[in-house]
Amino acid sequence: MNPVEPAVDTPPTRPPDARTRRWSRPGRRALAVLATLLALTAAYTAWANTHPTTLRASIEIRATPEEVWQVLTDLPAYEEWNPFITSARGTVARHASLTLLMHDRTGDTTFTPVVEVAERGRELRWLGKLGPGWIADGRHRFTIEPLGGGRVRLTQSESFTGVAVPFYRGTLRSATLPQFRALNKALAERVTTLRTR
Q1: Cα dist. 19→3, 23, 75 in Å?
Q2: b/e map of 34-47 (b: 16 or more CB within 10 Å)?
Q3: Can you give the pLDDT of all 197 residues of the chain as single tens digits?
Q4: Residue 99 neighbours by CB under 8 Å, 6+ apart
Q5: Angle formed by the axes of helices 65-73 and 177-195, nearest 10°
Q6: Cβ atoms within 10 A of the Cβ of 134, count?
Q7: Which of 137, 174, 112, 180 is nearest to 50 (CA)?
Q8: Cα–Cα distance, 40 to 48 (Å, whole number)
Q9: pTM
Q10: Alpha helices, DSSP H only, in 59-176?
Q11: How far is residue 127 from each of residues 56, 100, 162, 167, 173, measured CA to CA in Å?
């Protein structure tokens, strides 16, 4: 005969209390703070990429659009006359990459923008990116507008977007914009010099 094992009293299993299934109060707060930070970061990133900081400088030059275009697109000659873009390599053609060394009072910076527009005698535009494309982008543009009477207006502009740009807005205006003006003036002088040769 087999001995019978004594019955053991086990407490009945109860479903877990609703309070133990939920996040703890500190955990919920941490999650709410994280969600808020992510939402604010996303909103700031969207705002910074849709509200550009734009620099613009123009000059009138006694020249034809073709003469200005010749100087603007002769990249190897930049080191001879250009105080802002002191070195330039590449081909001025749509989708081509350029290598530019830019100088302002903060120092020298090398960029490798991609040409978006190269319309002879009218417009040169490129896009440079810092990082993956949302940190700081610069869309640099030169337009040549005939004014009549053998004169043109050269306008150089750049629109900066990205999350880092608002922090450098003052520096862009104080350090970079003067270099736009210096480039325009030097280009006008270069065109005049070439015309008199």
Answers
A1: 44, 8, 71
A2: eeeeeeeeeeeeee
A3: 556 665 556 666 655 555 555 667 777 777 766 766 565 555 545 555 566 799 999 999 999 999 999 999 999 999 999 999 999 999 999 999 999 999 988 889 999 999 999 999 999 999 999 877 678 899 999 999 999 999 999 999 999 998 888 888 888 888 999 999 999 999 999 999 998 87
A4: 87, 88, 89, 90, 110, 111, 112
A5: 110
A6: 16
A7: 137
A8: 12
A9: 0.74
A10: 65-73, 78-81, 165-171
A11: 16, 12, 13, 20, 19
- Backbone φ and ψ for 78, nearest 5 degrees, come out as -55, -40
Residue 177: closest CA among 138, 119, 136 = 138
Residue type present at position 45: T
What is the three-class DSSP state of 14? coil
